[in-house]
Amino acid sequence: MRRFKTMLIIFVFVGVLSCDKGDDPKTTTLEYDDTPLELNIGNLPEPAWPEDNKLTVAGVELGTLLFYETLLSKDGSQSCGSCHEQADGFSDSDKFSEGVEGEFGKRQAMPIFNMAWHDNQFFWDGRANLLRHQALKPIQDPLEMNETLENVVEKLSNSPIYPDRFMRAFGSIEVTDVKISLALEQFMMSIISADSKYDKFLAGTEQLSDSEERGRLLYETEYNPFFPSQSGADCAHCHGGSNFENDEYMNNGLDTDADMVDIGREDVTGLPEDRAKFKVPSLRNIEVTAPYMHDGRFTTLEDVVNHYNEGINESSSVDPAILTTKQTGLMLTNEDKVDLINFLKTLTDQQFLSNQSHSNPFTQ
């Protein structure tokens, strides 16, 4: 009897601790929770958040789990996070990502951040109109996760954790591919990068070095072949604004017509004038998202700067503003290149790269 009483006291004590932590499943597990997620967007302008999929705490938590969930792949070996590593700006440090069948993708994995500020579809060629549409394609791609949505729904429905999570996020324990896409969209839209050294410079809380400041001026100054001493790197035309991109698709002179192996945007629109045009990416966190370009052909920022300075190729669809620089190049000196790259590195957001709310919950 004494042993029974002792065990009863221990049981009650543990139960009290559980209640203190708010872990009582009767009060927290199966309740729909539409608490809005509060985000710090820094100096970025307010974007057009999706009205039919507002970000909630429960929705983003579910999306985080799904982003790192290996059940989404055919053999349970890969997740979205396998090819979009947080330390690499949610991109892949490999030139092409390897799928579950050992096959490799055809384009470099794009980084994931500030997705709510993209107004021109998703993927390098823009084949997904909304982020929720993009979210499901890698799951079904034979070169990537190679799974069916039906199988994913069944696996998540039979999981001991997901029906309750879907209830909290969407008000029903039913798992559907639409809800999966909406949760993933919420998580990806919650990944914000707005706290780089450059952002702190704009806020007046940090100063740029002399080299970084010279690089900033080069970045923002237009190309001028008539006055070389006043000519700049002319980066802001394509990578301008607070997110350092322009919501356009462009051919930036990587190949001649004869050398093109990827027709890019043309494959979506069917328009010859879109041949070899690709989505202009943000330059935020560019320091950590190598390799560069849609095919990962450049391994360093030096390679990228050299391309624009002296490596533009002429083709039928190359952007006229870029082609204009071909005759003389950007006329950047070695010091100019160093300064420009030093400025680009001020766009690295260390807080974003280490934010635990974006990290793999299964390894925390």
Structure summarized in a few sentences:
This protein is mostly helical and 364 residues long. The chain is 36% helix and 1% strand. The longest helix is centred in the N-terminal third of the chain and has 19 residues, at 2-20.
Observed structural traits:
single chain; 364 residues; mainly alpha; Cytochrome Bc1 Complex, Chain D, domain 2; 2 domains; two-stranded antiparallel ribbon; 15 helices; disordered N terminus
Topology:
Blueprint: H1 2-20, H2 25-28, H3 57-67, H4 80-83, H5 131-140, H6 149-157, H7 162-170, H8 177-190, H9 197-202, H10 210-220, E1 249-250, H11 266-269, E2 278-279, H12 301-310, H13 320-323, H14 334-345, H15 350-354
Antiparallel strand pairs: 1-2
Helix pairs in contact: 3-7, 3-8, 5-8, 10-14, 12-14
CATH top level of the largest domain?
Mainly Alpha
Structural class: mainly alpha
Taking all Cα atoms into account, the compactness measure Rg is 24 Å
Determine the mean pLDDT. Answer: 92
Largest sheet: number of strands, sense, barrel closure: 2 strands, antiparallel
How do the strands of the widest beta sheet line up side by side? 1-2
Order of helices and strands: HHHHHHHHHHEHEHHHH
The helix count comes to: 15
Question: How does this structure look, described?
Answer:
With 364 residues, this protein is mostly helical. The protein folds into two domains: 20-194 and 353-358, Orthogonal Bundle (Cytochrome Bc1 Complex, Chain D, domain 2), CATH 1.10.760; 197-348, Cytochrome c-like domain (Cytochrome Bc1 Complex, Chain D, domain 2, Orthogonal Bundle), CATH 1.10.760. Helix content is 36%, strand content 1%. The protein has 15 helices and two strands. The longest helix has 19 residues, at 2-20. The radius of gyration is 24 Å and the shape is globular. The model is unreliable at 1-28 (pLDDT under 50).
